[in-house]
Sequence to fold (523 residues):
Amino acid sequence: MLKIDNLHAAYGGIKALRGVSIEVKPGECVAVLGANGAGKSTLLKIISAIMKPVSGSITFYDRKIPSFPYQVVQSGIVHVPEGRQIFPNLTVYENLMVGAFLRNDKNGINRDLEWVYTLFPRLKERQHQYGGLLSGGEQQMLAISRGLMAHPKLLLLDEPSLGLAPIIVNQIFEILKEINKSGTAILIVEQNAYKALSVADRGYIMSTGVIEKSGTSKELLSDEKLLKAYLGD
Amino acid sequence: MFIQQLVNGVSIGGIYALMATGYALIYSLLGFSNWAHGDVAMLGAYIGFLCVATVRMPFWLSALTALLGAGVISILNERLAYRRIRRNNAPTMFLMIAAMGLSVTFQNMVIVFLGPKFRTYPPVIPVKAISLGSIKIGVLDIFSMAFVIIAMSLLELLITKTKFGLAIRAASSNMITASLMGINIDFYITLVFLLAGSFAGAGGVLLGLKYTVYPQMGNVSLKAFIASVFGGLGSVRGAIVGAFIIGIMEVFVSGFITSGLRDLFTFGLLIAILLIKPSGLFGIDIQDKA
Fold:
């Protein structure tokens, strides 16, 4: 469904991506792994059109990705940004409704609202509280749920484990599995390689703007040397 | 006497509120002080004046034209000046400087094309006063207050109850994330400038009716700015409360002390709030805990 071909990107004169090619098939969960500064977030920012590439092509269902972020959402891709980026002055419920902003199907919205509340019951308990008052883990849950409220075909996740306790990370990744099983394709960008590969079907390993290696999660996980070399643990 | 002055204060405070809310809306979204806001009000006052006095249109139609005209000018400011600066991710200081430039340009264009004279609206609204016991309220003040109450109530509903409100609250909290959730930022910014400009235009017409129309009348938006800082920059409710407090205080100082000290008190109030509670009355933003 998503095809990225020979993508180049730069911040000013500094190259962030150098010829990245990645593919996500319908229903798949794909992980992009790499250390800080490898260019993972840049990749997602370009897909969701908040950053412009230097060259290269991105197609979604064989159509070129549109050039404004809201059009990308319309086409069925939602980007859950790094660091959660909850709207602190909006309630949990309002945050979720911003996620459903482009939808007009009331029934569908209510169905998805019930769904994310069953995935993350904490959110239902706190639905009338301000987003800024949630804990880090709850904010990550809200960020993922807010993304799901757009009913995406493809969910882009940027470091969902960032800064969270291991027990919360486990919970969140369990739920990501469930989301993926429900038919939503996921492209996840992570430093936590083991966790990400535990949910992903396939993975790409990225280092300084280049894809160094790709394979099924099993292949990558069995290659201890590779994981050590690129991810440091 | 006290209640009489209170009524006068509420009347002028309402006009400040019309300007301060638009000012606060733009600040909350784009994070800069739109110094051209008062001049949009001034242009609105001139449009209304020309429609009534020169074209001899009926007042309601002239007022409507002034509102829409000011709204369109406000949108053009954004389209032609601010948007390019935003696109370049330039510091918000650049936006403020551009706004100052627009302000000077508008004032001088009016001087060149329409002259520097003070002008008065023809008596479209009767200059009578209605007596309620010992209090006298001008018909214009009643009209003005009614308009302000309706406008502010609609604005409050718009911000808290509609999708438009949700979009601008989300965008003012985090614009990039709002765009990632499917909000067409440029479209909503355009709507906010239309709304802010129309409110300013309404304020301009009301000021013009109450006093006079002249090229520098937009400088009164300094009061709207103070109201907005006093209430908490970016907070629409704060701007409304701040505007009424300043309006009432000004009238009381003029009435009971001397009008020469009016601005001293207004700026004194600004300094006091900045010292005691720099975020303003309603500036208690929900902080991000995690």
